[in-house]
């Protein structure tokens, strides 16, 4: 079928008077004539051993794998465990990076030769070598399905992103369930717009009332959850979209927020609501990202404060009118509570649509970067931008252009042999041939160049590179159309496609930058758009879409990228895996390069790097000019990039992307609903296609806290002040702590515990007046290193207590300390612990501190948390005028009355924490990722990559890669 499409393309080309050029001629860029890419590097053998995070047992082991010496341990581990094919321990198992690259590249080369993409066999061989060199040296990577499937006996699925469709019929809805399941089974994700399904406010042909799309979401959510837990390489990723004029939009908006409230209530009542917990399955709608598709009409109604019509799906009649401002505020409120729904801007999306005659763009993939026709797919590939940064700060413009040519050609070739999960998707994809070239490491490149991420200069460079990438991609697509024909759907959409190309070129002319590097890039981008559009007028284009900005989760780690997708650096300090096992904390290597770019001498570079290693930030770094602080701003830490900084960066590059951008705008926990509403509004004003926000810790039921009351200040009268001075002058008294030993016979209690599968015993002894004075900890066998360390730690804590160090001081220092083992415990009052130390001191707090002190520390028993939730519900009900007397009688309060009285109705905002050391800084920063999910594969805490999560331990992702 693929061959027929190419033949038809050639026939159309001849009919239009532009005969095929006889294949592409390939120029040498990266390779050396007469030398195979593999012979240019030093290879080494390594052992890849992955251990279980709970008990240290080995869950993956392959010894003697072969990699270039410059590949990091992390990249080699991820590629070995994720992408090598064949059963481990058998002769069929791949054991070298050479085998993996050859398996993929040889398939692309053969398909290219078979389908007439190359002028000669020599061109095909050179293409093979250039592609091999680029993959070997981590210049770019295909998306994960290519590494999973190409060159194997499995179906040759190359796409990571899918868009489905569903109509207003039960057959179509059941087909949707089935098609989603097939996509999830293959480890990919899909998105769908449910707006064609009639609302719960409309009638069925039988006379009954329709269920509405939200009800059908339950079935799809359960299906995704089941397949996710069935052993796929990563969790099922899906997107559900509803148009803002759908009569069920208000129910859709609040769906996930209501479920998050349920999670909090059930967890506080003692149910196991942690990730993978026994009771979490009772909560619905957790397997999808939700987005509202808003129109310009709605946004104008929001601006003007007018009503907006919700329309029926059958005949388009008006069902009711709603206050546009209230609905927009409800969307922001729900996003504040649980990060869903996101926003998609319908008119902007379709204004840049190259195929409007075929149909509107109604949906996206789960991460919102691929937006195209219903029942279509897109295969992705991403460039590592740091490979094009010159030592002098320049950019390898010529090599970048040629690299884009190679990648687009390879991606286009893959459609000729690719398999698809459904026939409808296969037909659409072969007819429109959507591609998604993108990049990673823009954050690292900007920092290394001495440019702040949130600056006009940084945005200018990012826009220039993006424009050059997409302009080159479409120019090569026009050349491919001259060789193998334009895409089948081009003829009916020719005028629209050319209009969008002119829009891209016009946006390129509007890039503003004074940076000399950016000026050079924009100059070349202008040439590419001009040449491509001129060639496209003659040949058409081979691909309806060319570029997206994906999250680059697993493949970003494969390429050893410091930053993923369009993201800035996460933090200035990271952990590096070591060959012999373990890890070490290092300052990002981008930092010293940036300092040298800014002109700092080597001595100052070393001093500043040492300061960052100690403090994790650049504030007050010796010799660093304050005006350069912004260069080192990151997504997290002492100097984090403001939310609008992220939005402005997205807006700078969006006009040069065929699809959209996978990125979540991170906001602090203190962000207000009004601030989120403004971010959503600014996204529309700045011309974004999609926007998602994430407020720190919004998906975790935080324990309610009581702010401590400050003692009234004593008025310093002149007499008092004089007396104080006189006393100081008379005598300086030096106070020393006195040790108060416990009596020979003292009360004690022993608690057995289990944290993440590691078992131990805690014995706490008290003074006769019931104050804690001694702690003994028992873990591991007597004589082992761990047992000795725990004994020494117990003695240190005990002596500190006997010298008068308050127990709450130890608790504030050791709770939230994170290291393995960590995870679930067998204690109903402390369901999850970040480490053994975290558990021990939480348990001591619960046993020995009064409620008021624990409330300040945010530590409560399960009963107290339940009482607080009930008190909050009662207060809300009272405000609403609801009588809960009957409910109270049927569900009596089990916590003490004084606890309920002390429980606040609203948690007060946290007081800013002053940071005096790197240890305290670490304590403060760790809270930013506290609600990231645990990896399903290895159990490590994941981090955000675009709109998804990525595990830096094993490379698993929750979306596209």
From TrEMBL:
Domain TSCPD residues, every copy: 743-846
Transmembrane segments: none
Key word Nucleotidyltransferase present: no
Superkingdom of source: Bacteria
Signal peptide: none
Keywords assigned by UniProt, alphabetized: Cobalamin, Cobalt, Disulfide bond, DNA synthesis, Nucleotide-binding, Oxidoreductase
Reactions the enzyme catalyzes: a 2'-deoxyribonucleoside 5'-diphosphate + [thioredoxin]-disulfide + H2O = a ribonucleoside 5'-diphosphate + [thioredoxin]-dithiol
Chain positions covered by the region annotation Disordered: 1-20
Positions of the Ribonucleotide reductase large subunit C-terminal domain: 159-694
Principal EC category: oxidoreductase
Record carries keyword Endoplasmic reticulum: no
Cofactor(s) essential for the protein: adenosylcob(III)alamin
Ribonucleotide reductase class II vitamin B12-dependent N-terminal domain sequence ranges: 48-138
InterPro entries in the cross-refs: RdRp_reductase_class-2, RNR_2_N, RNR_lg_C, RNR_NrdJ/NrdZ, TSCPD_dom
Enzyme Commission code(s) on record: 1.17.4.1
PANTHER family per the UniProt record, alphabetical: RIBONUCLEOSIDE-DIPHOSPHATE REDUCTASE (PTHR43371:SF1), VITAMIN B12-DEPENDENT RIBONUCLEOTIDE REDUCTASE (PTHR43371)
Assigned protein family: Belongs to the ribonucleoside diphosphate reductase class-2 family.
Function of the protein: Catalyzes the reduction of ribonucleotides to deoxyribonucleotides. May function to provide a pool of deoxyribonucleotide precursors for DNA repair during oxygen limitation and/or for immediate growth after restoration of oxygen.
Name recorded for this polypeptide: Vitamin B12-dependent ribonucleotide reductase
Gene, per the UniProt record: nrdA
